[in-house]
Amino acid sequence: MEKGLTTEAVIDVAALGKVVPSGEGTLTILHEISFAVTAGEAVAIVGASGSGKSTLLGLMAGLDLPSSGTVHLGGQDLAALDEDARAELRGRLLGFVFQSFQLLPALTALENTMLPLELAGRGDARAQSEAMLTRVGLGERLGHYPKHLSGGEQQRVALARAFAMRPRLLLADEPTGNLDAATGAQVIDLMFAMNAEAGTTLILVTHDEALAHRCGRTLRLAGGRLEA
C-alpha cells in the first residue's frame, strides 16, 4: 500500500441525489446521501430491495451520474470527467464482484481473468491471472469455460479477475446472491481474506445482516435516505 493512504478518503459521497422520470412526474431514488470511505476500510451498505443500494453503487462507480451532489473517487469528481475518463479511472482504481458473476461465456477462466489486464496494457496479464486463479483454488481449471464451472467456481474467477488488477477499491454487489449458503460462505471467506492480503478498501452491498457485520462499518439505506 502506498505511504499516506491510511487516512485518505478513497471515495467521498456528498449530498448525492438521484431523480428519474416516472409516469407524469419524477421518482426520487436517492436523497442527500453523504459519507466517505477511507483506505483499508470494509464498509457494508444494507437495505431492503428498492432502497437504492444498486443505484448508489452505480453512481459510486461512475456508471451513472447523479442528479445532485458529488462523488469523488481517488480525489476526482466523477461528474467533471467525460465517459472515457471515468472508464479509465474505473479501470485503474476499481474492482467489481457482481451477483451474476459477469463472465464472458466464450472465454476460459484464464482469459476472463486476463481480459481487464490486457485492456489496461499490462504485460504481466497471463502470469498475474494464473497466480490469482491459483490463489482462489482454480489453478487446475484455467482452460475451463464458465459453463463447465459451478456457480461458486465462477464467482471465484470473478474474485481473481477483480483482485488481479490490484484495485484500491473493491465494489461487491450481493456477491453471494446466486450461491447456496455453504458455497456463499466459502466465497465470502475467500473475499475477506484476499481483501486483507491486498490491503484493498471494500464496499459491500448486501441485504444479509450477518455478512454486513463482518465489515467494520455499516451504512443503512431506507427509502433512498441514509439512516443515522
Written account of the structure:
Helices cover 34% and strands 29% of the residues. The strands form 2 sheets. The protein has a 6-stranded mixed β-sheet with strand order 6-7-8-3-9-10. Strands 2-1-4-5 form a 4-stranded antiparallel β-sheet, with helices on one face. The chain has 7 helices and 10 strands. Helix 3 (109-119) crosses helix 4, helix 3 (109-119) packs parallel to helix 5 (151-164) and helix 4 (125-135) crosses helix 5. Strand 4 and strand 5 (76-77) form a beta hairpin. With 228 residues, it is of the alpha/beta class. Mean pLDDT is 91; it is low at 1-6.
Describe this protein with a few key phrases.
228 residues; alpha/beta; six-stranded mixed sheet; four-stranded antiparallel sheet; 10 strands; disordered N terminus
Would you spell out the secondary-structure blueprint of this structure?
Blueprint: E1 9-22, E2 25-38, E3 42-46, H1 53-60, E4 68-73, E5 76-77, H2 83-93, E6 94-98, H3 109-119, H4 125-135, H5 151-164, E7 169-173, H6 181-198, E8 201-206, H7 209-212, E9 217-222, E10 225-226
Q: Count of DSSP helices?
A: 7
Q: How much strand content do the residues show?
A: 25-35%
Major sheet: arrangement of strands: 6-7-8-3-9-10
Largest sheet: 6 strands, mixed
Helix content: 25-40%
Number of strands: 10
Order of helices and strands: EEEHEEHEHHHEHEHEE
Termini Cα gap? 32 Å
Averaged pLDDT, please?
A: 91
Uncertain regions spanning at least 5 consecutive residues: 1-6
